[in-house]
Every structure is written in C-alpha cells, then in structure tokens.
Amino acid sequence: MPERARLIGEIEVAARSLSPYWPLPGFVAINPLRGWEDQAFARAVESATRYQGGRGYWRPATETLSDLDARWHSGTAAVNRHLILALSAFCDQGQAAWTMPNRHHGLYRAWRAVALHDPLLPGRRRLRKLPDTALACLQRLMAEVPAGEVRIERLRGHLHALPGWSAFVRWRAQRDSDPWQEHAPVTVVDLLAVRLALCHCLDVTETEGLAHAPADHGGIERLQAREARWRTPLLQRLQQRATQAPAERPPPKAQLVFCIDVRSEVLRRHLEATGPYETLGFAGFFGVPMAWQGLDEADAVASCPVLVDPQHLVREHAHRRGGKAIRQWRGRQRWRQLGKRLADQLKSGIAASFAYVEASGWAFGLSMAQANLAPRRERLQAQPPSTATHIRVAESDGHGIAHDQQIFYAEAALKTMGLIEDFAPLVVLCGHGGETVNNPYARALDCGACGGHSGGPNARVMTQILNQRRVRAALATRGIEIPEDTVFLAAEHNTTTDEVRLLDDEAVPPERATALQQLMTDLARARHGAAAERCRQLPNTSGDPVAAVEQRCRDWSEVRPEWALAGNAAFLVGPRWVSAELDLQGRCFLHSYDWESDGRGRALEIILTAPMVVAHWINSQYYFSTVDPQVFGAGSKTTQTVVGRLGVLQGNGSDLMTGLPEQSVLRSDGQPQHEPLRLLTVVHAPPERIEAVIQRNGVLQRLFDNEWVAVAAIDPRSGDVRQRQPGGSWPLQDAAAAHHARTSPSAATPRHPSPVSEYAL
Amino acid sequence: MRASGFWCAPMPKHLIWPGWLLFLALFALAVLNDSAIVRFAGLRLDALFWLIAPFIAFVGANVAHFSARYMDGDADAGRFWWRLAALLLTALLLVAADHVGWFIAAWTAMAWWLADLIGYRHGQAAARAAGRIARRWLMAGAVAMALGLLWLSAAAGTPSMAGIGRHASQHALPLAPLVMVILAAVVQCALPPASRWLMSSMTAPTPVSALMHAGMVNAGGILILRLAPALAESPGLLHALFVIGGLSALIGSLFALVQSDIKRTLAASTVAQMGFMIAQCGLGLFGAAVAHLMLHGLYKARLFLGAGSAVQATSPAPREQPPLWLWAVALPSAAIAAAVFAEVSGKRMTDAGAVLVLFAAVCALRAALAVATAQALPVATRTLAIPLLLLPGAAVYGAIVAGTNHLLAPLGLADLARPLHAVHALLVLSFAGIALWDLSGRLRRSPRAYALIRAASAPAFSTIAPHRSLHDA
C-alpha cells in the first residue's frame, strides 16, 4: 500500500504539468503549456502533444499528414465520456436548477452516491466495494503501480486525458475562499479517484496516454524562420529610430497613459498624429492592487493581474451631485432585476413554464426582431453613469487605501513609467475595456492587467490619488515634482469602438477647459483613423468606420466584434520616441521606460516580471489557439454551448474547451488572423542591466533560457541591437541578417490585408 | 450592403432581405385574407396556413439575419445556407400541403435535411454520430407518417387531408393508421421515449438549433392538427394523446431541471413544451395548441440565438422557501388572475378547458411568489407589482387564446368543449404530486432520482466527443 503522503506528493508533481483555467466570467489568458514551462519550448511542445495529441506548430489546413494524427487507446473514450458527464454535473455554477445532491461532500463522495444508481454505467456495483474517501480509493486502485516515476507518469496521463476539465479543477482547488469551492469542493485527488473508479467499473486498464503520438518534424525550424522574417525588420526599424536623436517636439498639451495592450498602439499612433500629445504605456491596473465593488453590487471583483493578490477594497458610492441620475438608474435596475428574476423562476418551474411561454412568447418574438434590426447598446445601460458616482479612496472602516500606501503606489507608477518630470497641464490615465453582446468571451476582450475587467475603476483611483495635494507634496520630497496646475483625469478606452470617455466630472479649472475640449475633439479624430485602420482587417464592414464598429459592438450575432489581441508578437520596453510614428499594426505591447532614470534597474525588473509575463501568457494563448484550435483552443463558436456558467463545451458534450475560439484567431476556417509567433521583448537599455535583472529572477531565466520568450536589447549608448541567446550571451545582431531583412519583400512593402500567403511556410 | 474589400460578396447578404420580404408578404396576405380558402395544385391556403406560414417566415427571417454574421467564415457556410433555405421552404410547403403526396414529400425532405444539418461538421465523429441518430429516428417517423397517411387516404378514398377529415365525421376510419400518425408526431416532437435525437442534436450550429426548435419539431403538431377532425371522433385516441403529451410535459420539465449546459436545458424545455402542445390537442383544445406552437417557437428561437449570454458571474444561493404568510397573498392573487384568464379566453371550469386554467393558475402563483420574495424591492412596490403584473398578463394571455380560436373557427379547429374525464384528473394529480415532492425538497436530495433523470436525458454516448483532437480511434 503506498503511503498516503507519498501518493499526495506524486499527485502534486503530476498536477504541476497542468496549467490552470480561469472560468469565462473572469477569463484570463494563460499559456496552455504553463505546466511545461520548465522545459525548453520544443521539448515542452513535444511533451504536451504526447499527452494530448494535436499540433504544436502551424500547418496550413490543406495539408493532411496522417502521421500527425493521434490514436488513442480504445478504452479511453468510454471513461472520458462518463467523466465529462460527471464533471459537468458537479462543477455547475448556476446553470442547473437541480444540482447533484450533497455536493458539499466533495466530488468523489457525491459522484459515487449518484453513480451507484446510474443505469448507463455498467459495472457500477463495483463502486460499492470502493472506499469512501478519494485518497483511500486511489491508494487501493494504484496499489499495483510501482511508486515513483512510473506512477507519476500514469497519473499525469490520467490528468491529461481531459486537459480542460483538469485545468479547471486545478484552478478551483487552489482557491479555498471561493464560495463555489466551499459549496462544492473539488480537488485533483477527487478527480483522479473518480477517473480511476470509472476505469475500474468499465474494466479498462490501458487508458492513459496516446497509443500513437503525433510527430511534427521541422516544426521548430519553420517557426524560427517565420519569427526571423518578422523580427529582423522590426529590430532594424527600431534601431534606426534609436540611433537618431529624438526630433524636437513642442511641449505636449496633454499626456495620456494607456494600457500596454496592443490595441492601444493603434489609437496612440493616430492621436499623436492629430496634435501635440505625448502618450505612454503602463499596465492597465496602474499599479493599484485593489478589489473593486461597484455601486449596489454585492460582491467585489479583483481588479489587478492574477499574479497579484488584491490588497485593498475600494467601493463606488453615489455622488451627491449625481443624485437624480442615480435614482433613475436605480429605478431602472430594480425593474430589470425583477423581470429577470421572474423569467428565471418561471421558466424553470415544473408546471409554471407552460402558461409563461404562452403568455410571453410574443414579447420574445419582438425582442428577437429588435435585436436583429435595431439593436441597442447594453453595457452602458447596465452600469451606473460614472460621472454621477464617486470612488472613496481614503481609508475608512476597512475600505480604501492608507495614505502612505497611496504615496507608494503613485511613486511606483510614475517612476516605472519614467514620468517624473515635464508634466503636461493635462494627464489622462486611460483604462480600457471591450464592449460586446451575446458573447461568452466578453471578458477576454477586457483588460488582462485588471484580471479580466475594465480598467476604468483603477484609472479613477489613481487619478484621485495623484490629484491630492498631500500626495503631491510627498512625491516632491521623493524627487517627482508635479506642477500645481497639472490635472489628472480618468478615462476609459472602449477597444471595440475606439471611443475614449472621461469617467469623472473633475473640477477642471476654466483655463484648462478649452484644452480639454480640444483633446476630446482630437480623440474623436484619432478614433476615426483608428477605426478605419481596424475596419480594413475586420470582415463585413462598409461605409463609415465609426458607425461600423458601433454596429459590431451591439450586434448579438457578431462573432468577431474586434480582433482583440490577435496579431500580438512583440513587447517593447522603452520611451515612446523610439517607436513613435512607426506603424506597428497593433501588434506590439508598448511599455514606457526611461533607462536613465532607472539606475538600479528596479523599474525594469518590475516591468519584466509582471507585465511581460502577462504578455507572454496572452501571446502563448493566441499561439496555441491558432496552431490547433481544437486541442488548445475552444473550437468554433457556432457549435459551442455554455456549461455551468463557467466555460464552454463543444456539441453535446466534450472536454471543457479552454483557450480561445476559432473566430478570435482565424479569419475563416484555415486562414489565420493571428500569426503564431512567440513573444519578442525589446528593451531600450544596456544589455548588462537586463542580464542583471534576469539573473535575479528565476521566472525570467526560465522563460528566456527555455526560449518561450526572446529578448533583444537596443543599447541606448551605442545603438547596437543584441539578441540574448539561452545561457546569457548577447551577440550582436548579424549584419548579414540585417541586410537580408532590408532587402526581403516583407520589409519593403507596407502591410495591407493579404491572404494566407503571408503566413505560408 | 456593399461587401468590404477583402471579403468576396457572400451569398448570405442576399438571403437576408428576401427572408424579411417573404415574411412581410405572407403577413400582409394573411391580414388581407378574407378567410377564403385558396386551393391549387394539391395545396390549400386556409386559416391554419395564414397563421403558421407568417410565423415560420418570421422565425426564418430572424435566423437568416442572425446567421449572416454568425456563420461568417465557416468552411461549410455554402452548404449551411442552401440547407437553411431548403428547410424553410419545406416547412412552408408542409403547412400548405393538402394532398398527402405533398405532405409526405415535405416531411421526409425536412427530416433528411435536418439530420444533415445536425451532422454538420463532417470532420468530427461526434457530429456524424448525432446526424446518424437523428436520421434514424426522423426517417422512422417519416415512414410511420407516410404509411398512416396513405392508409387513411385509401380508406377515405381521397388524397386530400381536408377530405379525410370530412370523411371521418361521417364514417369511421380505421384506428391503426391514426395510431401510426400519432407515433410519427411523437417522434417528430421528440417526446419521450423518442427524445434522444433532440437531446443529442447540439452538434448543429446555433441558428439551426433555433430554427429546429421553433419550426421543425412542431411539424408533429401540424400533422395532428390537419387530422384533428379524424382524431376528434375517437375519444380513446384523444385520451392517448393527452396522456402521452402530459407525461412528456412532466418528464421534459424534470429533464430541464438537471441539465448543466444552456443548449440542452433549452432542448429539454422543448420536449416539455411539445408534450404540453400534444396534450392540448388531446384535450380537444386545438386552437390553444396552435397558439402554443407559435408562441413557443418565438420564445425558443430567441433563447437559442441569445445563448451566448449564459456566461455570468454567480454565487451559490440557497433555495428560497417563501414564508407561509406570503402564500396567503400569492394564492388569492393567482386565483383572481386565473379567473381573469378564464373569463377573457372563454374557457370554463366545467370542461377540458379547466386544465388550461389550472396551468395558468400555477404560473400566476409562481409569479406572485417570485415577486413577493424579491428582496431588492420595497414591500410596497412588491404588493403593487403583483396585481400590476398578473392581471394584465392574464388578460393578454386570455386574449391570445381567444383570438387564435376565433381565427381557426372557420376551419372547425376551434377548441372543442370536451368533457372532463378521470384521465385528466389523474395527470393533473401526477403533476401536483411531483411538484409537491419537489417543493418539500426531498426530490432534489435523492441521488437515485437524480441519477435516473440524468441518464434518461443524457445525449447518446457516441455523440459526446471524448477527445479534443479531431481524429479519434
């Protein structure tokens, strides 16, 4: 009998190869191969495809390679199907009116009680003889397997048979404070116990792993070639800009801080072209690790990256001046919630639903026609008008942020960005969020730095902090002089429609009012340009680009409301003047950084260990969802069904489809919109500094040495471009390669929408 | 709508406006129609046609409009659009058909293409399996329907379905073909035990599911309605219809409680609602059945198309038990609402219409309880809201039922005032029994009951995709 502790340890080791999955209401992009990140990229892809099947490298859909097909052991299918039904029932988070009885006993016990009576499970009588607890059951059923590597391998194979569900269980098991985990606790041990019990009942022995694993020879070489084709010209252009002295520009009328998201790049470029504005990039949560509770909401949501735990609870209150607007909104909310409550209760009753359908069917018909012919924008109606609400940042009975911490966050944000002097009269902090209707992936369009929510609240909190006289005085003592007449404003960039909306009715002094007016006009012009650029890439757009994108955000049948982060390929860390006026096509994350003011490399360390890791996760999520939409992505939206209000299944039932749907990464079947490349980080700083930061941080060594992310340095002193090799050397970028890049067609021709050949191998 | 640069002009754009035009044309003709029956080429455009055809065209236009963007970029989009158009046209043909040949052809074609769309993704084994299962069941239903209709037309000596109905009022028709027809309706409406094909049909794209649940499954109801005069002559058959329909409604409702994903919840709800419609036919309430057929179609199509909104952040909430005093408020309100409904719709408590009134009363009761327990609203608003919501709702519902009856009266399809029977009481008591068992909380705590209902409503195993890679052993 294996010792319990040893078995638990082995399970933990096996579970480490799973990457967690954030359910759709709070979707966060994550590297699907996160559990394999301590191996080199090529080996990790090989390991993952050995367990799960699928492809790790891009191949055009027209190619059918029979040796790439995965063949599974024949027993796995039956076990998987039963397990899928069991997990869909147990993990339900609010879809089924009648859930599995006694879920609070845990997955194994609750499932076993039900499975004993399941007529579809042959051999269910054997369940009676199995122990009552999950761990004891595992001990019994794994007794014949030798301890150590063999058993770990077996367990890993079992876990990867349904990688989506396993990923969800792994995520849930690590959240003890989640109300659903208290209500229906599930752990990896439970999952394995249920799976092995099913194998026992169905008399299946060889279930784990593939009988025949796919092979993709030359995949890594093809990937490296494509990456070189895109990266070399980019580095060339950046190097050219870096070696020129920055052009003399008049002092900016306003500075706008956008999130590092790739979508900001498009708007920033168009805005800078309309007038004397300076834009910066900073992680969309503005450095404030907070949980946010909206007006009249019962629960708070974490509004910071998932790598960080929220430290403060910040609430929204009704503004004294906004009383009438809030009363109206509250009135509408009440009736809306009553209607929703009635609909939910009546449609799920045993006898009540028949008369309900007859009495209200006509209204549903009208609603359907209205949604098709005259759709309305819903998101703005569902939220209270932000200009009528106020966020209380000052600490009071458990909420808010303490004064010295406010100063700390303000200082950290400004110093990391490099914005410590030459403040413009207006500084706008711009969070972002998407807007879409009838979309299970709505949260995937929001700000990843804010845990899958809109960045507006964080912007409002940080502007309130920075507008306080006390805070500015404290910052002055730390070397950051903010002029008396500089005003900070909070705004939200709607990435689907490219509107920028001011969130608070700040008391803007009259002498700034005209400048603000001009800024809003210029933002509207920039919006037009950005929308036009994006519309060239979006299908089925015609006519006025602004009207077209507004149509997409409220159309319930739109499966591609915006391309979100499709196309992302590089993370640029440096001052804006290095990348300004370059058409980066919305493919680069841009983080502001000033190497001269960051002597000890602290800001660079923060940037590389937090925002860059988030960008890497996003990049990997898009990469794998593009190269294999079935195995690593979520398949087509058209045949998806939302399960348990937490994720999607394909068709009648399947593994939990983690990853992004086809419509988010492909233009049409087989034609990618996202070019599957790994992330390239380009830092405008001396290579020694970057290397020092890397040596201090294990996570960076892991990412760079294993070639998950590539990093290049543009030395500000000499203008050299050096790309880091695994191991820590920084060779000069090859002159021949540079020449080749200059003369290759993709460098010379401007980009326009082009068919598949651009991604051909 | 000019197609943009890199998207070549697709067919979809050209189908949307014809879809809406077709609906508007049928609607205008229906309104202007002066209840004259147009007969030509074996088709019969009567009151039933003018009610249902605009409805089918409306659902079709909405589904087509939705699909233009939804199915954009799909590899098999061409196949999808031709099948969708074909399904719509066969549905219209089915409602217009008077000659049994047309009816059989339309029904069979509809069944074939529906199965084809369920097995839409040829590359996936689960989809192919679902298509096979749907084809098997639906073709079996088509065979039963064809045999029954041909036998009936031979017995009545006329190929016209209206003629069969007229013949039935004077001479008795053999029972066996009518039983076959009922079986065909059971399969098409996916009533248990024939519900597996519908519960395994989620491999179809969402717009297909919307159209299927709104317009195709109720073809069984249309068959029953066309032969209503013949069925009405045999009380035994009507009772059989009532029992089958009623039990399906009960079982379907239980199915809907345990489903963990949105589309199968909607499918289970369709099974229940189709059962209720057939039960209404069994009560002789043909007008109400037509109303239910259309209203359910609109309801279900809207919910399917909007199924993407099912993702929500939720927290576990204990099941609310309303305090006893609330029942004292809710019961009288429900009774009054039911009385209003009975008055406006003309249903009396002394005949089969009583069952309809009872179901209306239960719905009103549930609504009153839901409003009364809405914590977010102040008590005064809640007390005001109960009559404000229930009474107009009951009146509108009653008006719809009365209206459909009025429109169908010239066809002889209006609700027959059938006498109450022990069978009716038995079914109502079964419903009440299960509902009380549920209310007590004991039903939902029973693992055996849960397991049985989950198993009965589970999709066919071959239609669950066990692996994520496209090619499995």
> Biggest sheet of chain A: strands, sense, closure?
5 strands, mixed
Low-confidence stretches of chain B: 1-10
Average predicted confidence as pLDDT of chain B: 88
- Please state the CA-atom Rg of chain A, rounded to the nearest Å: 27 Å
- State mean pLDDT of chain A (0 to 100 scale): 89
Strand arrangement in the largest pleated sheet of chain A: 4-3-9-10-11
Structural class of chain A: alpha/beta
Any overview of this molecule?
The complex is a heterodimer of chains A (761) and B (473). Chain A has 761 residues and is an alpha/beta fold. Chain A has 4 domains: 4-30 and 71-212, no CATH class; 219-248 and 567-761, no CATH class; 252-318 and 394-564, no CATH class; 323-379. Helix content of chain A is 42%, strand content 12%. Chain A has 27 helices and 20 strands. In chain A, the strands form 6 sheets. In chain A, strands 4-3-9-10-11 form a 5-stranded mixed sheet. A 5-stranded mixed sheet of chain A has the order 13-12-18-19-20. In chain A, β3 (254-258), α11 (262-274) and β4 form a beta-alpha-beta unit. The longest helix of chain A has 26 residues, at 510-535. Mean pLDDT of chain A is 89; it is low at 739-761. In chain B, β1 and β2 form a beta hairpin. Chain B has a two-stranded antiparallel sheet. In chain B, α2 (47-70) packs antiparallel against α9 (206-216), α5 crosses α6 (161-170) and α16 (353-372) packs antiparallel against α17 (379-408). Chain B folds into 2 domains: 12-306, no CATH class; 324-420, no CATH class. Chain B is mostly helical. Chain B is globular and about 65 Å long. Chain B has helices at residues 12-32, 47-70, 77-96, 100-118, 125-156, 161-170, 175-188, 196-199, 206-216, 219-226, 228-232, 235-258, 262-282, 286-305, 324-345, 353-372, 379-408, 422-439, 447-457, and strands spanning 38-40, 43-45. Classes of the chains: A alpha/beta (761), B mainly alpha (473).
